Amino acid sequence: MAYEKALLQAPESVRERVSVFTSYANPSTGQWFLRSASGVELWRTPLPPPPASAAAQPMPRVEAKAQQNYDMVRKLGLANSEAVQAISENVLALLQRVERLEAEVSEARARMDLERRGITFRGIWQVAIDYEQGAIVTYSERAYVASKAIRSGGQPPSRNGSGWLHMFDQSEVPR
Length: 175
Known about the structure:
Helix content: 40-55%
Number of domains: 2
Distance between the termini: 78 Å
Shape: elongated
Radius of gyration: 29 Å
Strand content: 15-25%
Number of strands: 7
Largest sheet: 4 strands, mixed
Order of helices and strands: HHEEEHHHEEEE
Strand order of the largest sheet: 4-5-6-7
Number of helices: 5
């Protein structure tokens, strides 16, 4: 739809060269791109303004890709072919599955990173070192754990509001 309008605005020399092509919208630049099969950019044009309903709810990546593929198929005159419709439905289902799996993998990676960090003993507290949340240090014969990420140059663990929680004194450790 919007792609067809953009193609109609293209110069005649560009429209003659379009047989096998790819097109895509780049929202960050606000432009449609038309490329030949070899990847050469043939033409670009500004994106049309989105309808009011689309502005309120952004279209997911899968639906945008499916719409782009449908527009290309319509342009080629194959939209009524049963084979094309069956393939399109299967491709859409696969794209949705891939997106769901990507989200699951992203969540799993974030959890693994968090679990891998855990708590770590970092030795005697030093003013010139950054400490991650969960870092354990000793200072003035006491053990402390960082309740948040601590930047270098921060306050020593013994002060209130320093981001360190007192765990125990060395005198409390059984020998």
